[in-house]
């Protein structure tokens, strides 16, 4: 048994959850927040048999594509010197961060 933990962009979460459910894969969904851009993320916990791990990772790859967007990396801070201006930077958002972990015991009570 394996645990797949994947962190994805909020915009992809409904599409991924629908896809997982349509393929018979159960997942626990949690809201989370990204560190750099402080945008909404969703974390999925998926308990799955070892032979289905590659299949589930394939579903995640299909539903969670990266995109580019402009963002203010250095947002204005109230105590910054006068005349300081933040500037837009192109960043890559979306995609998925995936962890696959061995599960010693799986119980559904």
From TrEMBL:
InterPro entries: CdAMP_rec, N-reg_PII-like_a/b, N-reg_PII/ATP_PRibTrfase_C. SUPFAM superfamilies: GlnB-like. It comes from the Bacteria. Coiled coil: none annotated. Pfam families: CdAMP_rec. This is Transcriptional regulator. It comes from Anaerotalea alkaliphila.
């Amino acid at each position: 048994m394996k645990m797949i933990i994947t962190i994805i962009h909020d915009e992809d979460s409904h599409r991924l959850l629908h896809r997982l459910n349509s393929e018979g894969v159960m997942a626990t969904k949690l809201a989370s927040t990204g560190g750099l851009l402080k945008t909404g993320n969703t974390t999925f916990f998926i308990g799955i048999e070892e032979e289905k791990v590659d299949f589930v990772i394939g579903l995640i790859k299909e539903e969670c594509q990266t995109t580019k967007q402009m963002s203010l990396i250095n947002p204005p801070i109230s105590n910054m010197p006068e005349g300081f201006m933040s500037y837009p930077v192109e960043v890559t958002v979306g995609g998925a961060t995936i962890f696959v972990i061995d599960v010693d015991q799986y119980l559904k009570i």
